[in-house]
Prior knowledge:
The protein has helices at residues 15-28, 88-92, 96-107, 119-124, 140-145, 170-184, and strands at 4-8, 31-36, 41-48, 57-65, 68-69, 80-83, 112-115, 132-133, 149-150, 155-158, 161-164. It has 188 residues and is α/β, with parallel strands linked by helices.
Amino acid sequence: MAAKILIVTGDAAESLEVLYPFQRLREEGYDVHIAAPSRKKLQFVIHDFEPGFDTYTEKPGYTWPADLAFSEVDPGQYAALVIPGGRAPEYLRNDPELRKLLKAFFDTDKPVAQICHGPLLTAAIGGLSGRRVTAYPALELDMQAAGASFRDAETVVDGTLVSARAWPDHSTWMREFLTVLRAKAPVT
């Protein structure tokens, strides 16, 4: 039986940051599930840069069904966790069920991949204190406030925590995460 990986997300997550790891990890042989506040069709978004804008723009992206609600997840059944970015982490960090899940992964030192605004979730449970991370560059102050040492790099690995800035960094992010996964939770 293949090791299970959990992706936690919600509406307004960045399409590429959910679907790329979902497909890449399945390609590698892992059983990947997506959890959200409830079982429903999620509406993802696309963030991109347009000339003349000071920040990214947001457009509707793909839709995708959530396999599970956060309240249905048994973290003991999963070998690792993926936390995509987009706007979803801004409101998901207030979900007590999700915070319990995240804490379970960090308490057992399971591999965690986070990208873009995803580290807002790990910051909400105190999971970044004393860690080296990267995130979307506009979150540098948030990461420092959470007690992390922020690096503006494609990917930062700190033990079992693998972080990346945004979807342009996917290849290094998943390569490093798969290195951690193969050591801690190999495909069987």
